[in-house]
């Protein structure tokens, strides 16, 4: 476990200052309906780290990811973006937890790229328009600059020649790569991937995983919820295994995945035994 | 049946087309403008926002347009504050009474049409917009409404066609649009059969044009690739939406 860093100290030592987590969840609880999905989860992503979150369906890993950019608002616990604590109002009476400072939430979300399981491209916009939306309407770039930015990232995911296609004329893998370009065009600090290949046919997962791998190799900070075990082993600097709304095990992939300490992870890694 | 009289009547009645179109198009535009924000209120989870709008649509959809028109035309003049204010400049004119009635009525139907569309937008598309930090207003105007509008376009086209036909009620408050002219012509020629056939034919032409227009818009909004777009102005409209 990472100890909390005193960010307010006037003379932070260099090494410590560099070690402020880009994104951090602290003892997060979340109940959806009557089901406690997260029961005290802490996770921190430091700059250039790639963290894979593994776990069976229903273990809370997607909810954790959605709490990090406040698509779900934690009932209790803290979310920190760098040295800034997000303003979260706990549940009161019949109302659930809610965002306290909408401007802050928008600003932080703009710095956290999110890629969804079901792509969620806007069907009435072309690939290029999907990618340009954020640069124009959130970052405030001119149309010209936004077009250049969008083209740059479409080229990066290998889809520049599909720029004028609508999502329904793209394959699942292509749609997900456009979604990755859309997230990148915000120049985010941290990238969040929510099972990015789970909705894809097996033969289409490769192109998406290659795109994600190349981002990992650039040293981007990423949190990846995935079922792709061998991929997680290859690209991650750290893996976290979740079960029953808690992180059971966390550490470098070679340790955690090769010598699982908990029975839960052993079962998860080798369901037959 | 006197064919010559029919063609003659059509010529006369075409003089009312401008007024019919003015009433229809203006009330559709006003109705549209009112219904977009109100439809979002109606679709809101907050009772405080949705209930007043529900009350409004319930009343205007649950009573005949003719009754609404009479209430406005005969009723507004009974109110002292209307008679004694600038409003009187507007509402002593039957045109503005009809326009008000039609706009409020059209808005009520359009709100319910758009509400259905708004609620049918997949939540994931809204989340994707939230995730890049788009503001709630921009999410509504740039993501939710354009998608909702595409979904409900056929129902909205019905509303437009319905409004063209409903504008004939303006004849009851002395306006000489197509039906008003027809009634006047009947009282002069005593040939209701021919004259109303002529009037019906003109309405048929107008509704045909309206549904063709919406077919085209639908075709283009449903995303034929842009290089195949045959109507550049429709492409512009699509990009604007």
TrEMBL record, chain A:
Q: How does it sit in the membrane?
A: Peripheral membrane protein
Q: Which is one Gene Ontology cellular component term of this protein? A: plasma membrane
Q: Name one GO molecular function term.
A: ABC-type amino acid transporter activity
Matches recorded under SMART domains: AAA
Q: Where in the cell is it found?
A: Cell membrane
This protein's UniProt keywords: ATP-binding, Cell membrane, Membrane, Nucleotide-binding, Transport
What sequence ranges are listed for the domain ABC transporter? 23-269
Give the main localization category.
Answer: membrane
Specify the superkingdom: Bacteria
Family, similarity comment: Belongs to the ABC transporter superfamily.
What is the name of the protein in this document? Histidine/lysine/arginine/ornithine ABC transporter ATP-binding protein HisP
- Organism, by scientific name, is Ancylobacter defluvii
From TrEMBL, chain B:
UniProt entry keywords in alphabetical sequence: Cell inner membrane, Cell membrane, Membrane, Transmembrane, Transmembrane helix, Transport
Q: What gene is this protein translated from?
A: nocM
**Which GO molecular function annotation, any one, does this entry have?**
transmembrane transporter activity
Matches recorded under InterPro entries? AA_ABC_transptr_permease_3TM, ArtM/GltK/GlnP/TcyL/YhdX-like, MetI-like, MetI-like_sf
Its taxonomic placement starts with: Bacteria, Pseudomonadati, Pseudomonadota, Alphaproteobacteria, Hyphomicrobiales
Q: Family assignment?
A: Belongs to the binding-protein-dependent transport system permease family. HisMQ subfamily.
Question: TM segments?
Answer: 12-41, 53-74, 193-214
Biological process terms from the Gene Ontology for this record are: amino acid transport
Protein name per Swiss-Prot or TrEMBL: Nopaline transport system permease protein NocM
Q: PANTHER family of this UniProt entry?
A: ARGININE ABC TRANSPORTER PERMEASE PROTEIN ARTM, MEMBRANE COMPONENT OF AMINO ACID ABC TRANSPORTER
Write down the CDD domains for this protein, in alphabetical order. Answer: TM_PBP2
Domain ABC transmembrane type-1 residues, every copy: 17-214
Is the keyword Cell inner membrane in the record? yes
Q: Where in the cell is it found?
A: Cell inner membrane; Cell membrane
Taking the record's annotation, the residue ranges forming a coiled coil are none
Among NCBIfam families, the record links this protein to:
HEQRo_perm_3TM (TIGR01726)
Q: Which GO terms describe its cellular component?
A: ATP-binding cassette (ABC) transporter complex
Query: According to Swiss-Prot or TrEMBL, what is its membrane topology?
Result: Multi-pass membrane protein
Instruction: Tell me what organism the protein belongs to.
Output: Ancylobacter defluvii
